[in-house]
Amino acid sequence: MNDVRVVIPNHNRRALVTRLVSFLLAQQGEAKAEIVVVCDGCTDGSAEHLRRTFGAAIGIVEQAQGGCGVARNAGTVGCRAPYVLFLDDDMRPEPDMVQRHVDAQRRIGGGIVVGAIPVDAAAPPSFLTEGLARWAAGRDARLRQRPQVGFADVLGGHLSVSREVFERLGGFDPAFMSDEDLELGWRALAEGVRAEYAADAVAWQLFEKSFVGLARDIVRAAAADALFARKHPGAAEHLLLDRWDRLPRWEAWALRATLRYPGVTRVALHPAVLAMEQLRRLGATGRWVESAHAILRAHLYGVGITSSA
Predict the structure, then answer these.
(1) What gap in Å lies between CA 217 and CA 302, rounded to an integer?
(2) DSSP state, residue 114
(3) Residue 67 carries which DSSP code?
(4) What count of other Cβ atoms lies within 10 Å of the Cβ of residue 28?
(5) For residue 293, what is the enclosing H or E element?
(6) Which of 70, 109, 167, 278 maximizes the CB count within 10 A of its CB?
(7) pTM
(8) Taking a C-beta distance cutoff of 8 angstroms, is the pair 171, 55 a contact?
């Protein structure tokens, strides 16, 4: 029997998912893994390409686009391995990553294990890449000091969970188009599931997202926060939804203005997002672009909140 099933949701990123599967098939260690790629509404021929490239070495699920949570749930159907490892398709795992997850799961007796997600040096340089790299390094330093994780550390891009726990929790809530991993983490920790950080389980993220894509994600995350707070009232104080007044002055102002004048903000945001995307493509960095980025994020978060009302 396999020790772990690796589930990879993919939407039209054929080259990235092919790269990831190649790395997974070359993993070292005694742990036996099966690989399942879920093609979530793919229109780029991902499924056909994977079949031609890897044959029966991997499993492939095709479905209408339903989002990461739905795709990850689909990838676990029929799983008999004791552990499930979720990876985003833009990851580059270290050769022993799978073994490290299995070792950590066995050590804690089954639960949730979150791995390290440093930014790949091959990621295109920009203010977005720099900001993500700083966040990833800070997360790693914090969790190394205190390996016991919180719900906001439960990130589906690099996460393993025991199959028994996953099934008991009912998997990811399909109502969430974003933050479905954090919501799963909230429920797991509320039930006393043990969750730890495995600093030696490393998957490098090849971050290539456009600012247009990021803007869409921020709006969805804000709407997800609103849903999160309705489903779990006790979580509200831990979400930006209830903490926006603690933001730096200009970010708080931007969010407040958006909540008060959502229509005006929506009109103004489109050219602003396109301008930031151009700066990303040019590889712009520096404090001024970071400040503009933070203020724009606050506006986008406000749009997501007003759209969910």
Answers:
(1) 13
(2) E
(3) -
(4) 11
(5) helix 287-308
(6) 70
(7) 0.94
(8) no
- What CATH number labels 4-205? 3.90.550.10
Kind and range of the H or E element at 302?
helix 287-308
In order along its 309 residues, the chain shows pLDDT tens digits of 899 999 999 999 999 999 999 999 999 999 999 999 999 999 999 999 999 999 999 999 999 999 999 999 999 999 999 999 999 999 999 999 999 999 999 999 999 999 999 999 999 999 999 999 999 999 999 999 986 799 999 999 999 999 999 999 999 999 999 999 999 999 999 999 999 999 999 999 999 999 999 999 999 999 999 999 999 999 888 888 777 777 888 898 988 889 888 888 888 899 999 999 999 999 999 989 999 999 999 999 999 988 876
Other Cβ atoms closer than 10 A to 19: 16
DSSP single-letter state for residue 148: B
Query: Helix, strand or coil for residue 303?
Result: helix
The tokens of 139 are what? 């997360």
* Residue 46 CB neighbour total at 10 angstroms: 24
Nearest residue to 81 via CA among 164, 161, 3: 3
CA distance 20 to 18: 5
DSSP letter string, 190-214 = HTT--EEEEEEEEEEE-----HHHH
